[in-house]
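To start, an entry.
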Amino acid sequence: MAKGAYIGGSNGYRVLEYIEATGTQYIDTGIILDLRKDLKIECQAGWTVSERGMLLYGFSGEYNLSIELYSDTVLRVYNRGEIIPIGSLTFGKLRELASISVDYTATTGELVAELETQAKSGVLGEPKRVLHTQNARLGANASGGNAYGMFGPMKIYNPNLVRDFVPCIKAAGEIGMYDKVNDVFYTNAGSGTFIAGAETGEVVGPDVANEVQGVYLGIDNFAKRQLPSGYTQVEYIESTGTQYIDTGLVLNQNSKLELEMSHFDTGIQRMVFGSRKSATEQNFSIISGNSNNIVADFYNYNYNRLSYIVNSDEPLEMSISKAKLKINGSEKAVSTYSPFTTPGTAYLFNGNGSYPTGYTAAIMRLYYCRIYDNNRLVRDFVPAINPDGVAGLYDTVNQRFYANAGSGAFEVGEVYASTAHTVRRSYFGDENGIAQVWYSLNPYFIPADASRLITADGKIFECKE
């Protein structure tokens, strides 16, 4: 990547008119739909065969909201098997993309569906206006079946824009949807392969060739991020023993956690992160002992536990995955595990599940936290203050603010005000882990005097002569 140049462009993700599912493919959008808030879906889709195919399916266990390409070439909107009384909208022809819009107003429950020039409306009952419990899927229902159809661009608002999907093919030939909101490429979560529609000649996303060549270094954990208007990024949020964040995620053997914290109180046993049934069952957690140590557990602590002695206010960078446990420079490979899910959603600054009597919520500072599912980023927590002056974590993946679920209030660190700053990250390769980098907004221009670039979404690139 040359200095004085732009990244992105000819080597990015090539835009397609559509991607086609043939019965087994679908996209996990990573979004939990919240029908307590306004929701809008704008997309292009096409009918392919005389089989039912889900356009978008949001699931909550008791209730679900689905937009369905039905077997008589019509569009229908369902909620838990009940057709919302908007009637059916008819597609014109097979294998032609049509413009579709579904607009839902939370306060009244009114739902308006439009298909090209057709429009019908109905009302979603009060009991069904709930927060869903599973990610919405594009092209499939809850079991991953009934995936047929041509899927073009799609925007999802809930109520803000949370996904701006563009059908794409990657340089290596992988087909999926590129989200322009979070710069994430979503691939097939089912089996088989999507069929690629015609290329439009457009390109989106970062420079894939540079990533392949290894000059893409990762994500800057301390970059100044682009948060919505009214939100203020801060260096950290700090708990005093009564505050915690509910991440809303039930973890499993394919989950991965990355976080950094400091000023950790190890005087008594405390819960830092996670959920577990017990120390030996369904365990994905971080806790502290009463001997100035902190431990990371995965599945069963008898097999997979890493303990680390904390020195005063030393920053602790931690990660947990099915591959290994890591605390600063100390690592331990995971030896054995079986498929599992945690008994509840994971907490930050606390634990959710069964912990010994006497364990309390953590006292600590949190600088960042990221959670992955099957290597797909599902939470990117940034310490922030919302427009009402409340401190918490802003998730840039789902564009949602997570406030304190306990009592009291989080304390906060400095407000980010500069666009050029010094970042301390060991993976830069510098012996002291410190490098001066330049932060640039889109388009990503690399100044002539820059050694490394942090893009607007926190991606780090090495600059070459």
Residues 232-412 form a domain with the Jelly Rolls fold (CATH 2.60.120.200).
